[in-house]
Amino acid sequence: MVVSEEEYEKCKSARPLFFGNNGDTVFKFERPGLFYFISGVSGHCTRGQKMIIKVLDIEPEEQEPTAPSPQSSNENAPTIHSKAAQITPITITISTLFALLSF
C-alpha cells in the first residue's frame, strides 16, 4: 500500500493512496518525491515490511552556448543529446520489492 508519512510511521492506513493485493501489483512513479509503502497484511509492517522510495527529478536540460564553438576534427562524430537520455517513469513490481525485503 502507498500511504502518507504519518500512516507509514503508525503502520496503519484506513485510506491508502494506492492498494494492490493480487500478488503481482505494479505501481508507476509519475512524479518526484517520497513514496511510503507498507504491507497491507496484518502484522507485517510492524515486523519491518515497509519502505520509503525517493524518486529524483530529471535534471534540467543544459543550455546551448550562445557563441559558436571552434570546429574540431570530430565535427562528424555522433553526439548524445540529453533529451534522448531522459528517464521515463519507473515501474516497480511491489510484490518483488516486499519479497526482497523479507529476507
UniProtKB/TrEMBL annotation:
**Record-linked InterPro entries:** Cupredoxin (IPR008972), Phytocyanin-like (IPR039391), Phytocyanin_dom (IPR003245)
Note the coiled coil stretches, chain numbering. Answer: none
Phytocyanin domain location = 1-57
MF terms per GO, please? electron transfer activity
Return the Polar residues bias intervals: 69-79
GO CC, alphabetical: plasma membrane
Q: Which domain of life is it from?
A: Eukaryota
Q: Specify where the region named Disordered lies, as residue ranges.
A: 60-82
Q: Which PROSITE patterns match?
A: PHYTOCYANIN (PS51485)
A Pfam family that this protein carries is Cu_bind_like
Protein name, as recorded: Early nodulin-like protein 1-like
Source organism per entry reads: Trifolium pratense (Red clover)
